[in-house]
Amino acid sequence: MVLQRDLPVAVWGEADPGERVTVEFAGRRAEAVADTAGRWRVTLAPLAASAEPRPLTVRGTEVRTFRDVLVGEVWFCSGQSNMEKPIGPWKHTPPTDDYESVLARSDHPTLRVFQFPRAGVAQPGDGTVAWHPAGPEVLRRTKFSAVAYHFAEELVARLGVPVGVINSSHGSSRIEAWMPPEVFREVPELRGLEREEFLPPVAATQATRLYQSMVAPFAPYTLRGFLWYQGESNCLNAEHELYAVKLRALVAAWRRAWEQPAAPFYYVQLAPFAYSRRENPAIPLTVEALPALWEAQAAALDVPGTGMVVTTDLAGDASDIHPSNKQDVGWRLARLALAETYGRKDSAAHSARFAGVRRIGGNQLEVAFTQGGGLRSRDGGPLTDFAVAGSDRKFHPADAVVAGDKVVVSSPAVAEPVAVRFGWHETARPNLVNGAGLPTAPFRSDRWPVVRAAVP
Questions:
Q1: pLDDT value at position 426?
Q2: pLDDT of 326-361, one tens digit each?
Q3: What share of the chain is helix, strand, coil (3-state, %, to 5)?
Q4: pTM more than 0.90
Q5: What residue spans in the chain does CATH classification 2.60.40.10 cover?
Q6: Cα separations in angstroms, 239 against 86, 266, 279, 313
Q7: CB 313 within 8 A of CB 439
Q8: How large is the greatest C-alpha to C-alpha distance in the chain, in angstroms?
Q9: Measured between alpha carbons, how far is 434 from 447 in angstroms, rounded to an integer?
Q10: Phi, psi values for residue 282, rounded to 5°
Q11: Which CATH superfamily is domain 2-71 in?
Q12: Going along 170-242, which residue ranges are E strands?
């Protein structure tokens, strides 16, 4: 396994009530006495990173020794099927890009993976519920998350220390399933939602269930931070602002469970997909339902220590809800961690985001951005997917040109524009990128009502 460096390390377990337990590792020693329920826990003093395989020994009336234990960086990865999707072929989805060469180069003795099966139920021989050094056979057998693996692969290369990644994800799950029961009592907007019965395809993942079976068992395993890739199932529910409330509550709950109030939490903004064209949906969606969820995902960035990667350029033809390019998703998450968690100034990690708009005369609006240095067209063509509207709230496609770190937009159909939107369509794949080559996050400057469901 990998233990987290530079932080006090929690080690815990079960024994007979009153039994004295001693934990030893790398010259550190700690003792505890099991409580009346047989639970015990110790904390080892912080450890420096080390790729030297060493034993961790737990002594009570019995002795357990865990061998080949390294010290480095540990991340917990979770979400629904786009986090769960492994390297290579999977179910009825296209295989991940370039998977054969990815597997061929995947022997990394200091990259350790822990795959947790759905609801914690392992199958004989699947290799889950155990730590393994990364390698082709392990990644195939465990069906380890492609996003989590590519994230860890980049950290190992850039940091030069061991990295451990835990993947505990479940396809077709709503965010409520990953939240503890107390959240639904503490957050006023969420009270009572834990009693909602989810319909297929999320019927097996009712509120709080996956938290109890796939999250709580890992706390308080000391780690650096969390990765999250989820939202498709909540988009199918036509959610908007409430998803931001749920995401903020999830971040707070997980940090509290791990007793790490500042642990970084990085997540993936959903890729374009034609939700409105799904056959026989429970809720018919409009082309604005996904942009509305994008807006909610971005809104949760007001929580300190969070970050989001944009994937509007990674969706292929937007007909597959599981885009096959998982390498860039993992690498972008790694760039976020390198820049924000590890202070690597050479890691350009942020997409440009809308910062404001002003009228500059005639029918032109000037749009300002954060992280907008080096704005350009990714493909060298005219900028796409901008639209403007006047006071009648009717949007028209707009011409857009880069002006330094800003973009000037206009439309001959709108004499007096008052609002601008960018990428505001479920299958939009805009070509505006910043100097880091990262896609600009979709946005709107207005706060007019958005129609997310095609029927009431």
A1: 98
A2: 999 999 999 999 999 999 988 789 999 999 999 998
A3: 25, 30, 45
A4: yes
A5: 2-71
A6: 28, 21, 19, 23
A7: yes
A8: 83
A9: 25
A10: -65, -40
A11: Immunoglobulins (2.60.40.10)
A12: 225-229
Residues 6+ apart with CB under 8 A from 380: none
One-letter amino acid at 231 equals G
In the chain, which segments carry CATH 3.40.50.1110?
Answer: 75-123+149-341
Which of 308, 336, 195 lies closest to 244, judged by CA? Answer: 308
- Report pLDDT digits (tens) over 283-328: 999 999 999 999 999 999 999 999 999 999 999 888 999 999 999 9
Q: What is the CATH number of domain 75-123+149-341?
A: 3.40.50.1110
396 Ramachandran zone, left/alpha/beta (phi>0; psi -120 to 50)? beta
CA dist., res. 178 & res. 427, Å (int): 28
In 262-328, DSSP assigns E strands to 265-268, 306-309
pLDDT score of 205 = 85
**Residue 5 to residue 51: CA distance in whole angstroms:** 11
Nearest Cα neighbor of 188 from 233, 255, 249, 240 is 249
Q: pLDDT tens digit string along 84-99?
A: 999 999 988 899 999 9
